[in-house]
């Protein structure tokens, strides 16, 4: 199974959220002062943002941050407690606007007795697609998500990854102007994840606006033009991936023994050196450029130490959050 | 358009559930057993009636009684299937998460609820009518008896099923499936309570009458059954019994010698319309 964009399109797309032009004069999703309260629980505190035509906008945050609530509000599943929201230039709940939106929920669940073709036919008809266009479109989306030949298979026999793919297929049926995806790659194997990202980049290059919810850094980094970091119902920061994730390269160096001489020599080229709390022979070295790894290897050898590990290390999402929160506190 | 799509989808889904097939299979078995019992009982009654003063009256009494009991079974089976099949019509989809991809499509939430209501209404109406005519057909085949007012009786049973459907439609939009099921079963089984109390009190007091009225307003299924039973008693038998002063023989917890009051009939029809509309109103405001 391999997802494939239509044949006339390039198979590979440049990474890093490029590949489409963003029209910053045409807002697609406008949210002002959004708040959602469930009883005593504040799911969304106060959120405002705007996404633009052709833009892939990512919502990045841990579980329970309020990402899915925002998506559910945008798709009409949940009513906001307060706030002004416009999607594709229309207020929430505008029926005709929904014809231009494709949506894949976080954990899509299905009527498992349906065959794949029946499922897509039903959703096509809900979009108002009928006649020859219906059959053609169903074939196209099945091919796009790598499920050609599975038309007559019941959804109850599909694997989790296949269900994710058919869920995406129904979101593509209407050739949406806005594609809303909640946790893009859950349930997919690494190949499926790569295929899904490539497919999204293709749609982005075709001018489709994308709203992507995720707690995977790699997803948003690969696809999104801008990203909002959300935590506890508030947006902490909005920016391009390089602005948010661009940081000094960090190298993990593990040796047989860390001597004073070695530390002194490394201090000469490093921006910062931290010692791993759990492993005293492991150093985390911030450098100006990743290419300085060769210099570090030379220094280790020159100091007579044995080099066991020399690898780049990236901040985890959790570390990124703490870093963002700390930075914001310092700024205040 | 969206409404009819949901109706069609609901009918398709019902036929893909084993429940409907299991019920149909059990009904066939039940009807088979009923045919055997009917045959045996009728043979016995014919043999005994030969020794009676008026054997024709004896056979008529038997045929009438078995018709009433059969239609009562139709009322119970139809009610049970209505509850079991529709108790999760909205709540089940919400709990399973299957609505997320449907509700976000370009259709009104009202179309989803009314579409489902219509789909289940069609299935259950056909089921009830089939069962009704099969039971009475078997009785006609063996005894030659056919209730003169079978169609009004069927109308009452169908309306009773629609009342339950309206109740589960509302409950399913408001409560979790289990709670909705408990409410529907309690009301359906509890509805005849007033009839039993009236049976054991020779002269029902105003309080008893008021409580009966309240129960019938909350859940008019039992009143509709009594309305159906009235149409199953041949009019000349009722006239004869009234002339002989023995009409109270037909006034039991299962039967009635009075037609359903027009006000209660109107209430039942209103009930079938208003409850799904309240369910729709609730569903439109519900977070999914």
What characteristics describe this protein?
heterodimer, A: 332 residues, alpha/beta, Rossmann fold, Alpha-Beta Plaits, 2 domains, 6-stranded mixed β-sheet, 4-stranded antiparallel β-sheet, 11 helices, globular, B: 288 residues, mainly alpha, 13 helices, 0% strand
Structure overview:
The complex is a heterodimer of chains A (332) and B (288). Chain A has 332 residues and is an alpha/beta fold. Chain A folds into 2 domains: 23-241, Rossmann fold (3-Layer(aba) Sandwich); 250-314, 2-Layer Sandwich (Alpha-Beta Plaits), CATH 3.30.70. Chain A is built from 11 helices and 14 strands. In chain A, the strands form 3 sheets. In chain A, strands 6-7-8-3-9-10 form a 6-stranded mixed β-sheet, with helices on both faces. In chain A, strand 4 and strand 5 form a beta hairpin. In chain A, helix 3 (116-126) crosses helix 4 (131-144). Chain B is mainly α. Chain B has one domain. Helices cover 80% and strands 0% of the residues of chain B. Chain B has 13 helices and no strands. The longest helix of chain B is centred in the middle third of the chain and has 35 residues, at 109-143. Chain A binds chain B through residues 38, 72, 75-79, 95-96, 98-99, 101, 103-105, 107-111, 113, 122-123, 125-128, 167, 170, and chain B through 1-2, 5, 9, 13, 16-17, 96-108, 285, 287-288.
